[in-house]
Amino acid sequence: MVRAAGAGLVRRLGAVLATLVLAACTTPSATDEQPATSPTPSTTSAPSEAPTTTDPESPTSWGPTTGEVEEARDLVSRWTPEQLAGGVIVGRFHGTDPSVPADMVRDLHLAGVSVTGANVADEAQVRSMTAGLSAAAAEDGRTFPPVIGVDQEGGYVSHLRGVATEFPHFQSAGLALQQDRAVGRRATREAAVWTGLELRELGFTWVFAPVADVTIGAADPTIGARSPSLDPGVAADAIDAAVRGYDAAGIVSTTKHFPGHGTATSDSHDTLPVVDATLDQLREHDLPPFEAAVTAGAPAVMLSHLDLTSIAPGVPASIAPEVYDLLRDDLGFEGVAITDSLGMGALGGQRMPAVRALAAGADLLLMPVDTHETHRLVSRAISSGEVSRDRAEEAAARVVAAQLWQQRVAEDRPVPDDVAARAQVAADALESAAY
């Protein structure tokens, strides 16, 4: 999710390249350029279409095998409208009682929930909460894990403070790449690997990162140091390395905020930012990091709440079919399209934004203001045909396929016992490589 920018750069540390070498030597994955489980870009079809191969072990362009996609389609084809509605919602909840989100996941058949800093008390509570969510999904009859997501970008957008390792702002990745491309790529990838493994050890299955927005600097009040760079090429390189690292860790990453929030001069938490860039300008400045993410095998992309006047004037991108078409048709993305939080000010005054987002092309609806009411409205829309059954099944199948992939890779890649120590080495190495 978008979070308001803080001031200042990441703090400077001395260059301690030895830590970078140590992090590289202890990574439970293959090489920097080609992780062991990194999906191979291909022209396989989206989950709503017939696969182009009969080999169930053949990978898609975004992670799951074609067999996992088929398994997901078959499963959701038997779901009720209430199950389909739940399967495309990542709910919000209040407080720190682990039973509250667990009850929501079980009773509303939710795909999962997003955990914020306000839901975190301490490590024991986090572990109890994530374990309870997994148990609730199993009680609902699921044999795959729920979406348990968190904003853990590094820097000031880190909702597990005091629980997980503190990584530097993602800006450090771009700075490190500018210092030395090979060292910067390795440091960026290692940071993503160990962030993902540490989150998995705490029970999470998704991370709402990396940030692919290309900032314009001081005029950008929202993204700032969360962006890897003012240079689209450097940002694309950072995103490629980060996505491959998260993939190698067996956690579902979420490249955000399509098609780029870095040029917006107002905050979508408060209002609907207007971006007047032409499509050619977007392609030159904003889209390169997202193209890199798709090529790297990104499993999920988050849609922004921006008024893109050259594509869908007056309509937030997250509920505009034209923006989903840009992501699917122009960039060739076949994975999970997730909205930014539906509780943000940019959607103020929009009627039934969750239903409109699903109809427009979203596969996951993130943090609606009222999860129960949104589930009711989406269920009704599917039952009435306002959102077609095919569209709902397509969305839910993508989510299930992503979770089947996450489950398989996590089972194949155990989390090391010393994950916290190794995560700290990777965090120090990234910050050191930046200066």
TrEMBL record:
Occurrences of domain Glycoside hydrolase family 3 N-terminal (ranges): 102-400
Domain of life (superkingdom): Bacteria
PROSITE patterns assigned to the protein according to its UniProt record, in alphabetical order: PROKAR_LIPOPROTEIN (PS51257)
Signal sequence segment: 1-23
Keyword Hydrolase: yes
Reaction(s) catalysed (UniProt annotation): Hydrolysis of terminal non-reducing N-acetyl-D-hexosamine residues in N-acetyl-beta-D-hexosaminides
Keyword Hydrolase set for record: yes
Region (Disordered): 28-66
Pfam families per the UniProt record, alphabetical: Glyco_hydro_3 (PF00933)
Protein EC: 3.2.1.52
Matches recorded under InterPro entries: GH, Glyco_hydro_3_N, Glyco_hydro_3_N_sf, NagZ_Beta-hexosaminidase
Keywords: Glycosidase, Hydrolase, Signal
Organismal lineage: Bacteria, Bacillati, Actinomycetota, Actinomycetes, Propionibacteriales
Low complexity composition bias: residue spans: 35-61
GO BP field: carbohydrate metabolic process; peptidoglycan turnover
Protein name: beta-N-acetylhexosaminidase
GO molecular function, one term: beta-N-acetylhexosaminidase activity
Family: Belongs to the glycosyl hydrolase 3 family.
Organism encoding this protein: Nocardioides seonyuensis
